[in-house]
């Protein structure tokens, strides 16, 4: 479980997050949705300790962000950031193997190699393993970053808009892998999604943000409605229920 309480954050005097209290359940997929600038990435980066907490507290499992050791946190929480700019000329398999760092401190053993092999297989990356990251497509790169987060073997996984710029096939493939990490491996996944229809199709729990605050949360079918789209996104779109899931018609 991730517990956030009294969390506020400002940048250069401008409030970005306003007194957030939120509990993210253990297990399954929680999707964070909301308009651009709502504060989703800021919230995720505070959970992932990529920024220092100014006010409030966050606990992940029984670890408190800010006091737990880096090693304990790295073995508990893996992050895939919104845009990962890797400068070095790295091969895909090398990137994935970095995910093992919290367990081997840069000295990989047979178990680490086996985990990386298994991840390359599971993420369909075997044919690309020796390619440099600048020689593969955006979708393949995003799958590689997801595989790196996967081999970190953490109970919690944070993904910030992993579907950015992916075509429908790549997006559906990646979401199936994410779904499987929750279902088969029992990971708790927190994922920022731009497309509400992906959120309602794949998530168990939705958290809707607007202006640095939580506007709504709950099961997708209890959360996404025409009224919510108007209130939070300021747009009048039709919502239909298909196979028990709300679907936004654009
Ligand atoms: N480094 C920064 N400097 C100034 N403002 C920032 C910075 N990062 C984010 N913001 C502002 O904080 C708000 C929330 O941003 P963000 O968390 O990225 O939102 P989201 O991920 O929901 O689109 C936005 O208004 C954004 O402009
Ligand atoms: Mg963002």
From TrEMBL:
- Domain of life per record: Bacteria
Q: Which residues form the ABC transporter domain?
A: 2-236
> How does the UniProt record describe the way this protein sits in the membrane?
Peripheral membrane protein
Q: Which Pfam families match?
A: ABC_tran
Q: Which GO terms describe its molecular function?
A: ATP binding; ATP hydrolysis activity
UniProt cross-references to InterPro entries, sorted A to Z: AAA+_ATPase (IPR003593), ABC_transporter-like_ATP-bd (IPR003439), P-loop_NTPase (IPR027417), Siderophore_ABC-ATPase (IPR051535)
Protein name per its UniProtKB record: Iron complex transport system ATP-binding protein
Which family is it part of?
Belongs to the ABC transporter superfamily.
Q: Where does the protein end up?
A: Cell membrane
- Where does the protein principally reside? membrane
Matches recorded under SMART domains: AAA
- Name a single GO cellular component: plasma membrane
Keyword hit for Magnesium = no
Which PANTHER family does UniProt cross-reference here? IRON(3+)-HYDROXAMATE IMPORT ATP-BINDING PROTEIN FHUC, PETROBACTIN IMPORT ATP-BINDING PROTEIN YCLP
């Amino acid at each position: 479980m991730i517990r956030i309480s009294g969390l506020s954050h400002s940048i250069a005097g401008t409030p970005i997050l306003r007194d957030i209290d939120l509990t993210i359940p253990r297990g399954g997929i929680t999707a964070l949705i909301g308009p651009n600038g709502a504060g989703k990435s800021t919230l995720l980066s505070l959970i992932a300790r990529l920024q220092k907490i100014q006010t409030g507290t966050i606990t992940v499992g029984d670890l408190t962000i800010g006091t737990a050791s880096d090693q304990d946190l790295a073995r508990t929480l893996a992050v895939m950031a919104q845009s990962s700019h890797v400068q070095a000329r790295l091969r895909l398999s090398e990137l994935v193997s970095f995910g093992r760092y919290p367990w081997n401190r840069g000295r990989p053993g047979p178990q680490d190699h086996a985990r990386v092999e298994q991840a390359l297989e599971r993420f369909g990356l075997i044919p690309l393993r020796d390619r440099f990251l600048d020689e593969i497509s955006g979708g393949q790169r995003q799958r590689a970053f997801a595989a790196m987060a996967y081999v970190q073997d953490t109970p919690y996984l944070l993904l910030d808009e992993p579907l950015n710029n992916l075509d429908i096939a790549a997006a559906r493939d990646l979401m199936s892998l994410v779904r499987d990490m929750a279902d088969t491996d029992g990971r708790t996944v927190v994922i920022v999604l731009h497309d509400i229809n992906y959120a309602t199709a794949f998530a168990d729990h939705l958290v809707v943000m607007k202006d640095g605050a939580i506007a709504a949360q709950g099961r997708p079918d209890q959360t996404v409605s025409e009224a919510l789209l108007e209130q939070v996104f300021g747009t009048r779109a039709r919502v239909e229920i298909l196979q028990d899931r709300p679907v936004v018609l654009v």
